[in-house]
Structures are given as C-alpha cells and as structure tokens.
C-alpha cells in the first residue's frame, strides 16, 4: 500500500471519475470501482464525476446505459456535474490528435491491413511480441500512394523507461521499448479509446484515476499523450494513478458468473440484496480499516483512503454477502421491508399486516426473497396447498390433536402470543406430550409448511378467525 502523499494532491481539489462502457450491465467489479471513486472524492471534499464511454456505437446500447445509471442510483452513488458522454466529444478528441500530429508527436501511418498482418505473422513465427514496428514513424508521407488511407499513430518514446508511483501498486517501471506506436485516429477519422479517455480525463479535471489493475498497462501508454500535450497546451499534469486488484472467486479463480459475476440489478432483483448491504460488502472487497467489518455511509466516507486498498486480489464470497445482508435486513425499517416484498407476494398482499409481521419474519431471512417466502403463508387461501413434508405430519392422530386444540382455542379470549403459549403448553401437559408434538401438525395446518416463524406468532398474525378456520379444515379433513 502507498503512503498518504498519493491520497490527494496538495495543490488542487480531488476529482475522480467512474467511466463505464455501456455494452452490458453494471457488473460487480465496476460497482466497486464506482464506489471507491465516489468515496475517495467524498472523503477529500472533492468531485466524483460520471462519464459514459459509448464510443463503440455498435455495442453501446441505451438499455445498458439505463441499467448502469439505475444500478448506481440504487447503490445511492450520486455524481457531481452532468454525466459526460464520450461519443459527444469526438471533435475535441480529433483536435488533440491533430495538435500532436502538427507538433511531431504523432504521424500518419499508411500501412495496409495486409502489410500489418504479414508483420504480425513474422513476429509470431519469431516468437516476438505482437506490436507495430514503426515502419512509417520516420518516413515521408509523400512516399505513400496519392489518396491512400492512413491512420494517425502516437510517436511513443522508444528509449529509457517510464516510472509510475501507483497509489496502490507502488512503483511500477516499464521499458519504453516495450511500448508501440498505437493508433490515435482510425482511417475513418474516428478517435480510439486510448486517445479519448486521456483527453476526457484532462478536460474533466480528473486528478486521481482509480480503476482496475487490468488498466495498469494503459497508464504507460496514456502518459506520453499527457506529457506531449503538456508541452503543447500546458496545464496537462500527470494524474495520480491507483490501480486496484481485480475481484476473484472464493476459489481464487477469475470471477465468473458461478462466483457471482452478475449485474448489480441481479443482486437486487434475483438475489434480494439490500443496497446498503452490497455497499458495505463491496467496500470491504479489497479495502480495510482495522478489523471493522460494518460501516455506515458516513463512516465509509470518513475512513476511506487509498492506504486501505490491498495489492492482492480480493475474493468474492456469496455466503458472506448473504450473511451481511441478513444483518442489514434485521436492522431495516419494517415498513420499508414490507414495501419491498409486497410485489413479490402479489395483489392480495396487505402492507399493514406485512409491516406488523416483519419483526417476526426478518429474524430468519438472509435476503428479500426469503423474507417474501416466509410471509407467503399469511396470504394463502383455503384449502391450503401442502408441501409433501407438511402433509406427512397430518396423520390421523395429528388431526385428532388438532381437533382438541381447536376446541381449546375457540374459547381463548386473550389472543396474544403469551396467552396462546400458556394454553397450548397446558394442553400438551394434559396429553403427556412435548409441545413439539402439538406444534408440528399445528404449523402444517396453519402454513402448509414445516418451517415458519414461531407457532404462537403465526397464530397471532393470522388472527383467531383465520387460524381456527385453517386448523378446523385439517382436523375435519376438509383441507385435503
């Protein structure tokens, strides 16, 4: 980990950016990158900016943009200033490329696709790295056929080395001979990603580039543009780079869908994760503050610096996320939870009843879907559909016990958990049975399942009339 000197520039306000490509959902790694950028800016009182890198017009979709914005909003990550769309800035990208060309930091390359393929084939045969060999770097453009198409390539330094003091990785050095002269403008005049991202970061005033370490090599390729433009326009300082290790599965392998590499929307809609739980879990994926595991948003902002980011890949553990989510469910507002699960239950869901039931229901649930499943018994219609295990409990002897329970409960005037518990315990003692012998068939009769909240809580939530109707249906065989 790096020292505090790279956490924030001393002479200007911190500006970070999150720059997703809208070619799919907001994946879990992207969400963590967004979170780290947002927290860093908030910690230092700076700006967190959002840029949509939609220059790949064939793969970028409005649906993907909406999914990214929706996911960020759900995580409650707000951004300063208007969202920047890279596709709208093409003229500025071209302007910078032309300035680099005019100043001699870039050149026109007329190599044909056939020539480049022959070059790569020769490199493969010689087991050399595949990179452009600079064949037009020092040639006169007049050598090219009249009207021949060309690309504009950056003239990267080819001697010495480039050193980056990365805020997470520490000092990283690359020999300049390993860099090739990559394309800035394609033959159709469109800018490449490598040019566009550098220009946009500068124009947006980004001081700290916090991103995955799969972009570390890009930093060495982007710095020559920055340094060349600083000589041309002035005011193009090197940003502080912070390359965060990627997220792996809990087995140490590259994160895949089987590990949990899904869109943020899937965590919400399919897995029933609360946004504050995912926020906290992503915060702890590769960052730490002592032994603390649970953070409020305010604490996360207060404590977050790049010093806490580790250099090793973090491991995504779905079980740990679900356990954390269960803790957040138990702490969540009951009315809010009722509102979340009502659509999952259907049109007959009663928000007032769900809210009353929540203190009982949420003690058992690890996600919103389990919460909805646990509440479903409240809204079942008679005759109840029984699970196979529940039906097996309703033997002839059990139905006889249910008939006796019904007779006692019909005369019960105090329909509270404590009174019902005292009544049924007394009945169990009279029969010489453990309370479980009564509770098991009673639970099956009331819920159609073998698992539920405490049986006395179930009775109270269903109410006297519905409880007795369900018990009687099974005791008399009408529920079969």
From TrEMBL:
Positions contributing to ATP binding: 257
Sequence motif 'KMSKS' region, location on chain: 254-258
Residue span of motif 'HIGH' region: 20-30
UniProt-listed InterPro entries: aa-tRNA-synth_I_cd-bd, aa-tRNA-synth_I_codon-bd_sub2, aa-tRNA-synth_I_CS, aa_tRNA-synth_I_cd-bd_sf, Glu-tRNA-ligase_bac/mito, Glu/Gln-tRNA-synth, Glu/Gln-tRNA-synth_Ib_cat-dom, GluQ/Sye
Keywords: Aminoacyl-tRNA synthetase, ATP-binding, Cytoplasm, Ligase, Nucleotide-binding, Protein biosynthesis
Catalytic activity: tRNA(Glu) + L-glutamate + ATP = L-glutamyl-tRNA(Glu) + AMP + diphosphate
Glutamyl/glutaminyl-tRNA synthetase class Ib catalytic domain: residues covered: 14-321
SUPFAM superfamilies found in the cross-reference section: An anticodon-binding domain of class I aminoacyl-tRNA synthetases, Nucleotidylyl transferase
Any one Gene Ontology BP term: glutamyl-tRNA aminoacylation
Places the protein is found: Cytoplasm
The Aminoacyl-tRNA synthetase class I anticodon-binding domain, residue ranges: 340-473
EC number: 6.1.1.17
GO (cellular component) term, any one: cytosol
CDD domains: GluRS_core (cd00808)
Gene Ontology molecular function, alphabetical: ATP binding; glutamate-tRNA ligase activity; tRNA binding; zinc ion binding
Subunit structure of this chain's protein: Monomer.
Family indicated by similarity: Belongs to the class-I aminoacyl-tRNA synthetase family. Glutamate--tRNA ligase type 1 subfamily.
Function: Catalyzes the attachment of glutamate to tRNA(Glu) in a two-step reaction: glutamate is first activated by ATP to form Glu-AMP and then transferred to the acceptor end of tRNA(Glu).
Protein name in the entry: Glutamate--tRNA ligase
Annotated organism of origin: Croceibacterium atlanticum
């Amino acid at each position: 980990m790096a020292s505090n000197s790279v956490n924030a520039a001393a002479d200007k306000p911190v500006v970070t950016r999150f720059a997703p490509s809208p070619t799919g959902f907001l994946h879990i790694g992207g969400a963590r990158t967004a979170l780290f950028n947002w927290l860093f800016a908030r910690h230092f009182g700076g700006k967190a900016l959002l840029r949509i890198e939609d220059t790949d017009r064939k793969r970028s979709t409005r649906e993907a943009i909406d999914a990214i914005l929706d996911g960020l909003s759900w995580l409650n990550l707000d951004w300063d200033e208007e969202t920047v769309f890279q596709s709208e800035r093409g003229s500025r990208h071209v302007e910078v490329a032309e300035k680099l060309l005019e100043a001699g930091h870039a050149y026109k390359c007329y190599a044909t696709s056939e020539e480049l393929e022959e070059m790569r084939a020769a490199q493969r045969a010689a087991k050399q790295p595949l990179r452009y060999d600079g064949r037009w770097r020092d040639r006169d453009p007049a050598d090219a056929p009249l009207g021949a198409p060309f690309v504009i390539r950056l003239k990267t330094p080819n001697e010495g080395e480039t050193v980056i003091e990365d805020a997470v990785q520490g000092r990283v050095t690359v020999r300049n001979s390993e860099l090739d002269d990559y394309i800035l403008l394609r033959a159709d005049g469109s800018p490449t990603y490598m040019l566009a991202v550098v220009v946009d970061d500068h124009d947006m005033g980004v001081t700290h580039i916090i991103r995955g370490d799969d972009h570390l090599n890009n930093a060495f390729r982007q710095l020559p543009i920055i340094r060349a433009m600083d000589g041309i326009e002035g005011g193009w300082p090197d940003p502080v780079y912070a390359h965060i290790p990627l997220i792996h599965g809990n087995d140490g392998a590259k994160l895949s869908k089987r590990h949990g590499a899904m869109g943020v929307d899937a965590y919400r809609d399919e897995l029933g994760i609360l946004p504050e739980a995912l926020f906290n879990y992503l915060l702890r994926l590769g960052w730490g503050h002592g032994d603390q595991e649970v953070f409020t948003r305010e604490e996360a902002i207060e404590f977050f610096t790049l010093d806490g980011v580790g250099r090793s890949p973090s491991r995504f553990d779905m079980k740990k996320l679900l356990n954390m989510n269960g803790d957040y469910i138990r702490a969540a507002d009951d009315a809010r939870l009722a509102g979340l699960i009502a659509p999952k239950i259907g049109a007959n869901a009663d928000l007032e009843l769900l809210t009353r039931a929540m203190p009982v229901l949420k003690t058992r649930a690890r996600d919103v879907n389990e919460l909805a499943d646990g509440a479903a018994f409240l809204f079942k219609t008679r005759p109840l559909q029984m699970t196979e295990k529940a039906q097996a409990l309703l033997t002839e002897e059990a139905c006889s016990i249910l008939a006796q329970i019904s007779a006692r409960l019909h005369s019960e005037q105090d329909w509270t958990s404590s009174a019902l518990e005292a009544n049924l315990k007394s009945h169990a003692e009279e029969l010489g049975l453990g309370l479980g012998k009564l509770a098991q068939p009673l639970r099956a009769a009331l819920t159609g399942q073998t698992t539920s909240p405490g049986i006395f809580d179930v009775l109270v939530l269903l109410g006297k009339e519905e409880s007795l109707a369900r018990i009687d249906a099974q005791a008399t065989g009408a529920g079969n």
